[in-house]
Amino acid sequence: MEDDEQQSKRTKNTNSPDHGLQNERPSENPEPSKTLDTVSELLDFHDSPPHTMYTEDGHPSAILNYIHDRLQKQLEHNGIGERTSGKYRKLLFSKRSDISQNMHKALRPEVMDLFEAKELYDISRLYPLRICEEASAPSRAGIYLHAIVSPTEVRFYIGQTSSLSNRIKNHNTPSRWNSETLHYQVLQDARDNNWLDFFVVLADFDMPNDQSSNEDRLTINMLEMWMSTVFQSLPPKLLDDWLPKTVARRSCLGLNLSLPLSQGHIDAAKEWIHFKDSKDPMLQEYYTWRVSQALRNLEAVRFWRGNLARQRALHGEPAIVTTYKNTNNKGSKFVRKVIKLRDIHLTIPPTLDVDPSTAKVLYDLRTDAHPQRAAKRSLPTDPAMCLGIKLTAKTSHGTVITHWLRADGDKNVLRMNSLCDWLMGIPKATTEVTPRRFYIKKPAKGRAEQFYT
DNA sequence: TGGAGAGTGTTGTCCGAGGT
DNA sequence: ACCTCGGACAACACTCTCCA
Question: Model pTM greater than 0.90?
Answer without folding.
Answer: no
